[in-house]
Amino acid sequence: MLISLTVGKVDAGVAVLLTEDKRLIEFPSILLPPSITSGSIVDITVSRNLASEAAAQKSFQTLQSSILSTYGQQSPTPPVIRCRNATQTSVVLEWDPIELATAEVRSLSLYRNGSKAGNIPKPMEMTSTKMSGLAVDTEYNFQLILRTSAGVYNSEKLTVRTHKMTDLSGITVTPGMMAPPLRESLTGAVDRIGAKMAENVRIDTTHFVCMEGRGREWEKAVEMNIPVVRPEWVEGCEREGRIVGVRGYYLNADPKLRQVGQGVGLQQSPQRQQQQSRGSQGPESPVPNNQLPNRSRQDIQTPTSANNLRATTQPPPSPSPSEGGSPAPPPPAKDTPKGEPDAQLSPSESIASEPVSPEAPSHSTSTDHIDQQPYQNLKPAAEEGSGTSPRPEDNASMVDVAL
């Protein structure tokens, strides 16, 4: 198509062309011949280039297909969360690596019971986390929410229940420096309580058991704030049938801090149990003198007086004529020198009992009703000049005291 136009005005960038019906057309002046001035007539031929148009259309379709195959076929996948381990107060959660396709991650958040617990740092690298400070034997719901440039993707809700105090299946022990026999014993104890053993420190390791605080695994456990305890802690859990505190089982802890429960009490000797039962029933009933065992008077101790305590020593009985031998002189007093006042003892000290006359009545074993008799009538046979001393009655040979 040929069109004739009249040049009206020529500027540096645009020329004004006039049609036959006096319509204005702005035309780039750079496309006009250099000698064109106002009033010149130019002929312009216009035609459609079908070949170029087809090539451009084909190129456009190819670009659209490439964009679709690259960005439209795959999309980010929702996270898949699961429980790796649970204890009485903590839960270890893990999930598969995040698949973003061509999208970009914005954040990965963990929700507990519908409330945001926090964001996962480095979501493209971390695939597990540990939730501590939970309540014992309590049910919790956990969910991961992934926010990307392609949208928001939520995981399924995971229900986890923390263990009871008697459930030891959640304990994961990592052994450290110890002797081989002790390690074998530890392995057996861990198997018996239903716990797990891990050779290396992991995120689900609950306790690090060793005898010496050194080594790479020990350093890692300290860095991860994992309790470092002695092997006796596992034995305590097995003995008690429940998880016990770690305070008394640290490497440098005082063994007195270890709490003794019912499991230990059942293993006490019958004598210890008998003493505990007596203490709970109150003071003992009086015991007759004839039921006391024959002991030396020097081995029997009387309770001390709060105001004035005297230390005396009872001489041993002299042998009878039938047994042979001569009467032995009384031994000198060791605690109180002659001519000096009697020594004053504190209530915590013990003194020898004082003899009483053979006619003295039987006394109770209670320490509150002992009538101590002065050393008056009984004298050794050597002082009286006789060859033998009378044998005291079995029932009144000494004062009754609490052993």
How would you describe the overall organization of this protein?
The chain has seven helices and 18 strands. It has 403 residues and is α+β, with helices and mostly antiparallel strands. Helix 2 packs parallel to helix 4. The longest helix has 23 residues, at 50-72. The chain starts with a strand and ends in a 19-residue tail after the last helix.
Low-confidence stretches: 262-273, 282-316, 318-327, 332-403
Give me the number of helical elements: 7
| First-to-last CA distance | 137 Å
Helix content: 10-25%
Overall strand count: 18
Give the overall shape, derived from the CA principal axes: rod-shaped
Task: Please describe the biggest sheet, giving its number of strands, its sense, and whether it closes into a barrel.
Answer: 5 strands, antiparallel
What is the chains' assembly state? Answer: single chain
How would you sum up this structure in a few lines?
This protein has 403 residues and is of the alpha+beta class. Helices cover 18% and strands 21% of the residues. The strands form five sheets. Strands 7, 8, 10, 11 and 12 form a five-stranded antiparallel sheet that branches. It has a four-stranded antiparallel sheet with strand order 3-2-1-4, with no helix packed on it.
What keywords describe this structure?
403 residues, alpha+beta, five-stranded antiparallel sheet, four-stranded antiparallel sheet, 7 helices, 21% strand
Question: What is the strand and helix layout of this fold?
Answer:
Blueprint lengths: L1 E9 L3 E5 L5 E5 L12 E5 L4 H23 L8 E6 L4 E5 L9 E8 L2 E5 L8 E4 L7 E10 L2 E4 L3 E4 L10 E4 L4 H14 L2 E2 L9 E3 L6 H8 L4 E2 L2 H9 L21 H4 L4 H12 L19 E2 L48 E2 L28 H4 L19
Parallel strand pairs: 13-14, 13-15, 15-16
Antiparallel strand pairs: 1-2, 1-4, 2-3, 5-6, 6-9, 7-8, 7-10, 10-11, 10-12, 17-18
